[in-house]
Amino acid sequence: MVTPRRFLSDKLCPVRAKRERRKEARPGELIAAALDLFVEKGFAATRAEEVAARAGVSKGTLFLYFKNKEELFKAVVTENLSGRFTEWNKEFEVFEGSTSDMLRYCMRVWWERVGSTKASGLTKLLMSEGSNFPTLAEFYRQEVVRPGHALVRRILHRGIDSGEFAPVDVDHAIYAVIAPMMFLMLWQHSTPMCIDGQAVLDPETFIAVQTEIVLRGLSARPSA
């Protein structure tokens, strides 16, 4: 049996092998560190040297992988948000349930994969700082907002075409679906001023209730 050359090299020089594996992991480590700091401090207040320090590398090392802070932010958005839409669209291509079940699935999985994670703070960041960084705001619109709207539009058209949903203005109905998600993201990353201090808001229950409210409004009914 021939031992792979890379394996022999790793055995003969474990320090070099470890260094190479560390080098391969650095972009992911820098993206993770940047996500933490962008959500904690905002884009403008986050410095490149802070990201590098949190990732355990030098500032110079960060710029070997990302030419500036803007490119690092785009990588954070791509890794944590925009990359999800390809995954969801593939799932919907083979989805065999009703459109109501598809919408329930979409909103529940959104919470599991995005809403409940730190990445949900990126939306609040863009809402508060986007006007100061128009290039990043447009990138976010292209990579997150428009694909997100297209995904919801696809679900709504599926329901209308099958007769499950009443004909509606889809371009406006999209926001009825998105609004509960936006509320949860802002609630998670802001002082919860709009929540009764005595109340307990369970995000999963909130999403489930809001989904049923939307579905009742969309439901096709016999004409009066």
Automatic annotation (TrEMBL):
Transmembrane annotation, as ranges: none
UniProt KW keywords: DNA-binding, Transcription, Transcription regulation
Keyword Flavoprotein set for record: no
InterPro entries for this protein: Homeodomain-like_sf, HTH-type_TetR-like_transc_reg, HTH_TetR, Tet_transcr_reg_TetR-rel_C_sf, TetR_C
Keyword Transcription regulation: yes
Domain of life: Bacteria
DNA-binding region, residue range(s): 47-66
Limits of the HTH tetR-type domain: 24-84
Pfam families: TetR_C_11, TetR_N
The protein's name in its UniProt record: AcrR family transcriptional regulator
Record organism: Variovorax ginsengisoli
Species classification: Bacteria, Pseudomonadati, Pseudomonadota, Betaproteobacteria, Burkholderiales
